[in-house]
Automatic annotation (TrEMBL):
This is DUF5329 domain-containing protein. Keywords: Signal. Residues 1-27 form the signal peptide. Pfam families: DUF5329 (PF17263).
């Protein structure tokens, strides 16, 4: 019997594969990516703006570590994308968007910076053996 909707077969296969991967493994991958994103802020030469004030990379990393620890205590574990959206992109107190400034590159919303960094991390992981 021919498959009339090949996209449906692909979707069902993807769901079956996701179900076969232990939840802990998926959560571990997300935690690893999130921790790498937080570390990337500290290792960068970029300044991080919170509520109108610019902060050095180490201070930005420390702030995000505190916010992340709080989110994890609240049981708000999630993907790296959710971390970017819920933790790394805006102040939870004022709602103001964070911004990042790297060298002469101008300011960008922190969500954009983190999304680019996540893509870079994933590309590096996929180029590694077993990645």
């Amino acid at each position: 019997m021919a498959i009339r909707r090949p996209w449906l077969a692909v979707a069902v296969s993807a769901l079956a594969l996701m179900a076969a991967i232990p939840q802990g493994a998926r959560a571990g991958d997300a935690d690893r990516e999130i921790d790498a994103l937080v570390a990337a802020v500290g290792a960068s030469d970029c300044e991080f703006q919170r509520n109108g004030r610019w902060h050095a990379p180490a201070a930005a990393q420390k702030h995000l570590q505190r916010k992340l620890a709080h989110a994890r205590r609240q049981g708000r574990e999630g993907t790296a994308e959710e971390f970017i959206e819920l933790v790394a992109s805006r102040s939870s107190l004022t709602g103001r968007a964070y911004r990042v400034r790297c060298g002469d590159g101008g300011e960008v919303p922190s969500a954009q910076w983190f999304e680019s960094e996540l893509q870079r991390l994933r590309a590096a992981d996929s180029s590694q053996p077993g990645g």
